[in-house]
Design goal:
Shape: globular
Distance between the termini: 37 Å
Strand order of the largest sheet: 5-2-1-6-7-9-8
CATH superfamily of the domain at 54-79 and 89-120 and 137-257: LmbE-like
Order of helices and strands: HHEHEEEHEHHEHEHEHHE
Number of helices: 10
């Protein structure tokens, strides 16, 4: 499938206070100081994305609402992939290029800087595993963990005053859980973790002690749907759209926690 045309995508900036005020309304007062840290980190925010699409599908509403310190940088970690859909594999270079273009489309629309680490995803590392098996059990991969730590520590040295956001590993995909554990073990001070979408919505998981929550509402929904449109090659984007249309108003659709 061809990547979306960036000229057709506009992640509309939320210049009104609507989404920001709604997010603040649902942010526990006890977490106010932590929320200020998210907004005021002097060197901005580094968002780790296990694959192209994960950060966007999980945090588009938060990004559009201006709830994170700027500048924003998405670091896509496992961007080398041959996953072309359920039960389908394509050429590694071809599929990776399409996914990279989708990432660039979203980041350009959202005003986010993009970096890639060029690591092979689980589909490439474990070509004989069915897709479902990638979610079934954690797998120890010491070499991958060591490489992740090297990359994350280098980022921590480059951006000592930035806030790190990493996937929480909701849903259990091995790449997400490896990245979450590496973030906890790295030199980053006080990393925070975002709910992986569409998995959190699919599993009906509610946030526990969040420092920031975005709920189902028109402006946030627009940002999420725009993000999904950017990643049109991905079943996860289609799944997210289906789940968003089924979700009731007020349902948490994005959140960040300290653990």
């Amino acid at each position: 499938m061809e990547p979306s045309n960036s000229a057709l995508l506009k992640l509309a900036p939320v210049t009104t206070a609507e989404v920001a005020d709604r997010a603040a309304l649902h942010t526990p007062r006890l977490r106010a100081a932590t929320t200020r840290v998210l907004r005021r980190a002097p060197e901005g925010t580094i968002i780790l994305s296990a694959h192209p699409d994960d950060a966007a599908l999980s945090l588009a509403g938060t990004i559009a609402a201006g709830l994170l310190a700027v500048p924003l940088t998405i670091v896509t970690v496992f961007d080398r992939t041959d996953f072309a859909g359920p039960g389908q594999r394509g050429g590694l270079d071809t599929v990776s290029a399409i996914r990279a273009q989708e990432d660039e489309t979203f980041c350009a629309a959202a005003g986010v800087h993009l970096e890639r680490l060029g690591m092979n995803d689980a589909c490439v590392r474990h070509p004989n595993l069915a897709i479902a098996a990638l979610f079934e059990r954690p797998m120890l991969e010491p070499a991958i963990t060591a490489e992740l730590l090297e990359h994350l520590n280098e980022l921590a040295d480059r951006f000592p005053n930035a806030q790190l956001l990493a996937p929480a590993g909701v849903g259990g995909h091995m790449d997400h859980t490896l990245l979450a554990e590496a973030a906890r073990a790295s030199r980053w001070r006080r990393p925070m973790f975002y709910a992986d979408q569409p998995y959190a919505l699919r599993l009906g998981i509610a946030p526990i002690d969040p420092v920031l929550t975005i709920r189902h509402a028109p402006c946030a929904l627009q940002a999420k749907l725009t993000a999904a449109a950017a990643y049109s090659s991905q079943p996860a984007a289609t799944d997210l759209v289906r789940l968003l249309y089924r979700a009731a108003p007020g349902t948490p659709i994005e959140w960040v926690t300290p653990t």
